Amino acid sequence: MRLLFDRVFKGSDEMLALAERTLDETVAELGESAPVNMPNTAYFLANHNTYLKKIVRTAGELKAAFPEVKQWMRRERRLADVFNTGYGTFMAAEVIEACKYAKSPDPYGGEYHGHLSDAEVRELGVPLVTGDIPGFVVIIGPAPSDEEAIELIKGYQSRAIFVFLIGGIIDQAKRMKISMGFPVRVVAVGPDIWQVTHIISFVNRAAMIFGAIQPGDREGFDHYTFHRIRAFVNAFDPVTDIVVACGAGAIAMGFPVITDDEHDMWKVPKSIIIQKNTRDFIETSLEARDIKIKVTKIDIPVSYSSAFEGEIVRRNDMWVDIDGSRSDCFELVRTREAHEIEDHSIELVGPDIDSVEAGGKMPMGYIVEVAGKSMQPDFEPVFERKIHDFVNRAEGVMHTGQRDIIRIRVSKTAYEAGFRARHIGEILYAQMMSQFESVIDKCQVKIYTVPEQLKELRKKATAVYDKRDARLATLTDESVEVFYDCILCQSFSPAHVCIVTPERLGLCGAVSWLDAKATNELEPNGPCQKVTKERIVDENLGIWEDVNECVHDASHGNLDQVTLYSIMVDPMTSCGCFECICGIEPMSNGVIIVNREHEGMTPLGMSFSEMASMTGGGVQTPGFMGHGKQFISSRKFMRGEGGPARIVWMPKALKELVGPKLDRTAKEIYGIDDFTSMIADETVTEEAEVLMEYLNEKGHPALGMEPLM
Ligand code: SF4
Ligand code: ZN
């Protein structure tokens, strides 16, 4: 039997040889000055950056770094050399892929995913910390049969494990017509093993973005990936030497490899596990990486997992379209007395979804009634907002919107599997009871589908929404007794703390003051704790002694002082999963804001990814701040610097989203009408000079404000 070391070295030689060839060809073809980069990232070639601490921008620089890559593949047969060789193999793979991207920004033309963007890394922040994504698997295939490939992928998907596919298993998945893509958490990375470099780049960027690990800090990366990224590899027989070489790198990062290939394979406890029965891969893998999956038993005929949240049910595939924009639909959570509720009762009033033909329409509204000793009416909107996720997680069911602007589609496949209206009730019952168990003791669901009745019920629901909105409007930072902190993201960003107030939601956009309050009630020792606000230091900047003490303790001494309303003086830190980032634009004396979805440039000459890389990992960076979308229209947005009148540029889509509220706020504070129209966007310009002309023309208020710096 060949020594495992020999296999690693042989495999890495193969990768290196291919890299060298590809590099030489590319330099010969494009020249040394040709730009070399991956799209939508601020971390350059992230693996070169991580291990060599080298920023590569051109083919010439890539060539110059190559001897260093080789250096990582020394052969003295010590264990450390094997691990370093694994990393060297990843870098060699990155050379091959970088050359591909140097020739075309989209070398896979949609057939494979290839490189993952920074925005994709950031998007996973919240689901990872909440455990909605319990881990990642990299499957290197093909599986013994198409059926088994699908069973394995679906098995992981139903456990909400994020799936990366490399090699032959992708063809199997395509043949079996499995839907793939980042939103459904099954990513066809590429056909060849060297595309594994994109996954490693993804992981290393997570360490830089969320963990503030610095390029070159090898120990920091190893520690981070081992402790914070629950990843593992499933490699099907035959495992080639080149896969073994990559496996050495994976193991060094703390990711175990599970395989059914026994030939020339050595068992290494906790690192290389041989499982001859491929149908047991999932169980063996989860055990190896110590991943425990919480399952909520729901009595429905389709799969249920957060992996299906991003699934889209298209017109041609749908059985029924429940469209709140054209008929009276709504969803509502109400608090009741315990004796008013028959636990687990699910009542359908009106026809079921089998009353329409395939592709038909019908209206629907449902009321989830809950009771419990600690239930408060303030929690109703918090629980209600979760309905979107709850319903969306059923395979073949799509849910969008909230309140009385919902839309639900049930696919033909789900319908044929037996999915009916009452299953929506089953989902809501099971999830309400399990997610909010410390608050809710009893729950019942009523579903209505008769148009005349819905009209009446919707009116009543609207009255409830209006009352809630009136209550929200009275919730200001001054009117409440306490704020909350949130340290959920510390599992990835150990020094980061959000302070959540009525007028400033968490930067992820998912945690409002009411959410934090409910979380505190649900889990008294959980991530959200009360923060008193008795000792005020500066009202304008938003400084409290109590808040500072909390931030000091919660950040383990990393941070002593934070302001809630300033971007220049001790701004709040960021973990990495922020919805938007704002940064100062020196010429106009204002700030620009860009949201994660926006892929283009900004007048700062930086994209979202580049701006986002200026802050993160729980570090304060005056001048740059991550925040939630809803914070933009808050009266407290940058109050220390004069407020939202500082905003000079935002992507058009973001303007449309926050415009109505922002206009109201600007009218209230400054008496300005139609303020959003004074803010430039990408259709106006991405250049600082043109931006200035536009602002002058519009008489933008930022031009007359005090200098920011
Ligand atoms: Fe993370 Fe802050 Fe959102 Fe909490 S509020 S989940 S710490 S970003
Ligand atoms: Zn976060």
> Which CATH class of the largest domain?
Alpha Beta
Number of strands: 23
Task: Kindly state the percentage of residues in helix.
Answer: 25-40%
* Ligands bound, unique: iron/sulfur cluster, zinc ion
Could you tell me the mean pLDDT? 95
Taking the sheet with the most strands, its summary is: 6 strands, parallel
Strand order of the largest sheet: 3-2-1-4-5-6
Please give the CATH architecture of the largest domain. 3-Layer(aba) Sandwich
| Total separate domains | 3
Radius of gyration, in angstroms, nearest whole number: 27 Å
What is the first-to-last residue Cα distance?
Answer: 68 Å
Shape: globular
Beta fraction: 5-15%
Question: If you consult CATH, what is the topology of the largest domain?
Answer: Rossmann fold
Give the class from helix and strand content and strand pairing.
alpha/beta
List low-pLDDT spans: none
Instruction: Count every helix, treating DSSP H or I runs of 4 or more residues as helices.
Output: 21
